[in-house]
Amino acid sequence: MRIARNYVPIIITFVCLSISSCVTQAPTVKNDKQSPTPVKTINSYVPLGQESDEANFTQLELARDQGKATEAALTYLLQNSFGEEMTAGPYHIAFCIEKPKGYYQQVNGKSTWVPPSGNAFISVIVRDGFDGRIIPDLNIKLTMESRLVDIFKSKQLPYGWFPLVNRYGDNVELPQRDEYSLKIEIDIPKFKREDYINGDRYPEIVKADFNHFSFQINELKDPVRSDNQNAWLALAVAQGRAEQDALETMMGKVATDGKEEQNGDYLVAYTYDYAAGYWELKAGKLKYNNRIIQSTEKNGNIGIIVMDKMTGRFLPNLTISARFLYDLNPIVKVNPELVWHPWLYHYAQNIRIPGGKSYTLQVHADPPAFRRYDKNIGEIMNKPIDISFSDIKVKSGQK
Question: What is the pLDDT of residues 250-279, one digit of tens each?
């Protein structure tokens, strides 16, 4: 995915703040609760946000608009539950504790309702320290302690779709009232990062501690209810609208070709552009793969973007396959993987394909394996994606 190169570089500056000054000031529900005390020894810093071949200043602002919409939804969540946010490493990390939740999940090919369990629901939201976007496809481990016992150690939180803000979470069983400490550990993300300048981010394991907080189980709330739907639904849709703005910019002004269509409960788009390099995790370290730029083995890049129709938010953790056809004959088959991009998450893969022709692109994705929360709303996205795009104009080359 390319941008015009005739710009004057502008570096977005930042100030590295201490943990104590970076804690989000969104209020939490009081009700005789004691707020967490974040540890003040974690090294925090703001990731890069500079103009590059992948992102000019205006496009970086598209990412920040997505982050602002997410922050508004998170603020609402924290105001109507128990939780807090801090800055640790390159992330904003928040936790939230609510009433137990049920969810839909694909079991043996069918959408199955799993009722609430335990007496509380704990979730974690991880956002980029520069633009504030939620970071998908993470491995998050929790340790939670009370004054007397270890409640759980190294519990992995699964990703889920939520009506308000997507995040990682699970039901748990907690003492009725106690003082708690929560430790969160985030592994180095395995996804590739596009953009030589901005993509060198999330290079290490990050830990965040929330210490000495208390609440009463019987005071936990459900922030998303039918009686307050107007409030939370508007916040969810605003997140999708910000992502749609970025997608429309990519399709209309950056990629050599692109289109979006509805397919059942999904919005599906493709973008086609020149082949690109990327950062990837090798032996525990990020390394930039520029082989694609130095050779002609790949000459194109296909991007697939999938969003839920209800809110327009991007859907990670999907298994996608696609193929290009010419005169009904398959030419290229691909399995695009999730790629971090400075202003538009997508699934992508570099390919080699004859240029100067028009192709048909067929896209398939299995129903998402992640949980979909809320009994009244969550029974969506339970069917596969099968969609075709015709008359795709292919231009070949490398950036």
Answer: 999 999 999 999 999 999 999 999 999 999
